[in-house]
Task: inverse folding
């Protein structure tokens, strides 16, 4: 049985854009659950690290209010 990946925080070293994702399943969607480049400035690669508990809580609270993709 597939397991969802751990939450990640993506940060752009160039423009300091930051996004924490909490994937609901193992099917990652580019630009929603996973980022390979910065959506703000298109810089590649991004800094990726495990999300902290506070970042995970904030991302889960924001989830119902984001527009559907």
Result:
């Amino acid at each position: 049985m597939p397991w969802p990946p751990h939450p990640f925080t993506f940060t752009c070293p160039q423009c300091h854009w930051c996004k924490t994702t909490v994937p609901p399943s193992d099917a990652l969607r580019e630009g929603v659950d996973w980022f390979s480049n910065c959506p703000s400035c298109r810089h590649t690669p991004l800094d990726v690290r495990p999300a902290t508990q506070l970042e995970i809580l904030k991302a889960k609270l924001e989830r119902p209010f984001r527009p559907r993709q």
